[in-house]
C-alpha cells in the first residue's frame, strides 16, 4: 500500500520508492538542508518518525563571527577564479581548512560528524540529529561551493586586471551517508540499501537540477585514505557546479563533434562496440553494462552504462535502479578481490566512483548519456600509481597495464552475466 509522503516539486518517486522509501526533510541548526531517506518499514509506514530537531547551538551558517581579538568578521564565501590559460574555473574555499578529519595522517576530529547521535557521548557536534538512520543527505558544513544570500553572482577582476575573472562559487555541496555503521564498507551493504542510495542520487539530481545557477550535478564517492578521504564513514558526495567542469567540457566537445560527423551518440556507440567485441566487458545484467574502456588510464578502471538511452540518474526507471544497485554491489566486491595479497582475501580497495550525467542546461546535453566511471589508484597489492610529471604536468597519461589485462583479471573473479 502506498504511504503518504512529503511532496517535492521535481522529484517523482516510482512505485517502489512510493511503497518502500520515505524521505523526511528538515533543517540543521545553522539552516542547512537535511533529509532522512528511510527504507526501514516502520519509518516508511509512519509507525516511527525521525528526530527533526538539531539540538546544537549553531549560529546561522552565513552569520559573521568574532575573531580572537573580538573583531567582527563577515562570512567568507567561496570564490572562484578563471585560469586565463585554460579557461578553467578554480573554486577557492578557505573555510575548508577548518573541517574535521577523522581518517589518515593529521586526523583532528574527536568524533565522527557523520555518525548518528550517541546519548552520553562527549562528542556532540555530529550532523545527524537522530540516534540511528538508514541513509541521510545534507548540505556540507564546509562547502567548496555555496550560494550566499544577498551576494550577487557577478564577475569582478582580481587586482582590477581583466586577465583574471572572479565570481562567487555559487554552487552547492552535499554529503550522502550510506549507512549508520561508521566502521562499515560500502561493499558490505546489502543490495536493498544500495537501492536506497541510488534513489537518493535520483532524488537529489531531480531537485537540484532546478536550483538557480547550477550547470552540472556530480554525485561521486571517494573511498580509502589513499584517495584522500578525510572521513572514513561510508559516504559519498554531490558537487553541483555553477560552471562546466573541465572533464565534462572535454567530453561534451567530443560527443557533439561525433554527432555532427556521424549523426550518432558517441557514448551509445562505445557501449555497442564494447559489447560487439566482448573482450573488455566485465559485468552485464538486463539494464546495465560494465566494461574496461579500450583506452583506460587507471590500473583498475571500469565504466558502467545503461542499456537504454538515459541522460540523468532521475530518468532511470524502477528496474534500472534495482539493476544498478546489483551491478554496483558486484563491482565493489570484485574490486576488493582484484589485488591478491597472497592470502586470497583481497583488500579494501581505494577507489573513486564518478557519475557523469548530462549537464543541466548546456545545449549539448541531448547527445550525452549517463555513465559511471569507476577507478582506483592502486596498481598492485602494495603499490600506488602516483600522478607524476607526465600525468600531473601535462595531463598525458601513461598506463602501467592494458585494458585487456584489467578485464582478464575481472573475468577470473566471476561471471560476466549477473542477472
Automatic annotation (TrEMBL):
UniProt keyword Lipid metabolism, yes or no: no
Sorted alphabetically, which keywords does the UniProt record give? Carbohydrate metabolism, Galactose metabolism, Metal-binding, Nucleotidyltransferase, Transferase, Zinc
Q: Which residues form the Galactose-1-phosphate uridyl transferase C-terminal domain?
A: 253-362
Active site located where?
235
* The protein's Enzyme Commission number: 2.7.7.12
Q: Where is the Galactose-1-phosphate uridyl transferase N-terminal domain?
A: 80-245
Q: Name one GO molecular function term.
A: zinc ion binding
Q: Which InterPro entries match?
A: GalP_UDPtransf1, GalP_Utransf_C, GalP_Utransf_N, HIT-like_sf
> Where is region (Disordered) located?
103-126
- State the family it belongs to: Belongs to the galactose-1-phosphate uridylyltransferase type 1 family.
**NCBIfam families recorded:** galT_1
Put simply, this protein is called Galactose-1-phosphate uridylyltransferase
The protein's organism comes out as Bifidobacterium bohemicum DSM 22767
Tell me the organism's taxonomic lineage. Answer: Bacteria, Bacillati, Actinomycetota, Actinomycetes, Bifidobacteriales
Amino acid at each position: 500500500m502506498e504511504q503518504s509522503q512529503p511532496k517535492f516539486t521535481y522529484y517523482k518517486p516510482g512505485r517502489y520508492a512510493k511503497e518502500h522509501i520515505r524521505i523526511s526533510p528538515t533543517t540543521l541548526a545553522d539552516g542547512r538542508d537535511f533529509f532522512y531517506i528511510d527504507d526501514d518499514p516502520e519509518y516508511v509506514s509512519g509507525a516511527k518518525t525521525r528526530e527533526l530537531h538539531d539540538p546544537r547551538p549553531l549560529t546561522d551558517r552565513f552569520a559573521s563571527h568574532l575573531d580572537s581579538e573580538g573583531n567582527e568578521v563577515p562570512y567568507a564565501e567561496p570564490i572562484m577564479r578563471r585560469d586565463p590559460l585554460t579557461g578553467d574555473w578554480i573554486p577557492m574555499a578557505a573555510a575548508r581548512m577548518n573541517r574535521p578529519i577523522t581518517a589518515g595522517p593529521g586526523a583532528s576530529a574527536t568524533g565522527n560528524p557523520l555518525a548518528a547521535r550517541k546519548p552520553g557521548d562527549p562528542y556532540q557536534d555530529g550532523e545527524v540529529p537522530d540516534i540511528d538512520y538508514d541513509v541521510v543527505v545534507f548540505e556540507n558544513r564546509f562547502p567548496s561551493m555555496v550560494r550566499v544570500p544577498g551576494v550577487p553572482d557577478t564577475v569582478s577582476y582580481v587586482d582590477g586586471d581583466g586577465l583574471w575573472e572572479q565570481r562567487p562559487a555559487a554552487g552547492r555541496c552535499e554529503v550522502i551517508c550510506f549507512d549508520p555503521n561508521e566502521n562499515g564498507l560500502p561493499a558490505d551493504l546489502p543490495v536493498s540499501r544500495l537501492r536506497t542510495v541510488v534513489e537518493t542520487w535520483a532524488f537529489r539530481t531531480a531537485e537540484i537540477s532546478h536550483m538557480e545557477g547550477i550547470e552540472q550535478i556530480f554525485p561521486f564517492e571517494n573511498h580509502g585514505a589513499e584517495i584522500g578521504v578525510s572521513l572514513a564513514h561510508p559516504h559519498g558526495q554531490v558537487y553541483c557546479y555553477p560552471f562546466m567542469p573541465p572533464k565534462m567540457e572535454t567530453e561534451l566537445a567530443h560527443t557533439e563533434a561525433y554527432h555532427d560527423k556521424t549523426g550518432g551518440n558517441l557514448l551509445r556507440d562505445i557501449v555497442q562496440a564494447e559489447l560487439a567485441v566482448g573482450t573488455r566487458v566485465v559485468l552485464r545484467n538486463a539494464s546495465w553494462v560494465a566494461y574496461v574502456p579500450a583506452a583506460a588510464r587507471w590500473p583498475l578502471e571500469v565504466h558502467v552504462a545503461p542499456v537504454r538511452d538515459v541522460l540523468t540518474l532521475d530518468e532511470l526507471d524502477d528496474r534500472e535502479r534495482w539493476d544498478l544497485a546489483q551491478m554496483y554491489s558486484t563491482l565493489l566486491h570484485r574490486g576488493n578481490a582484484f589485488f591478491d595479497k597472497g592470502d586470497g582475501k583481497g583488500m579494501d580497495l581505494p577507489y573513486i566512483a564518478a557519475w557523469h550525467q548530462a549537464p543541466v542546461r548546456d545545449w549539448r546535453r541531448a547527445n550525452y548519456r549517463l555513465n559511471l566511471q569507476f577507478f582506483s589508484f592502486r596498481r598492485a597489492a602494495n603499490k600506488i600509481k602516483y600522478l607524476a610529471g607526465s600525468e600531473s604536468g601535462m595531463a598525458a597519461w601513461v598506463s602501467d597495464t592494458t585494458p585487456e589485462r584489467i578485464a582478464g583479471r575481472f573475468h577470473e573473479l566471476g561471471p560476466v552475466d549477473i542477472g
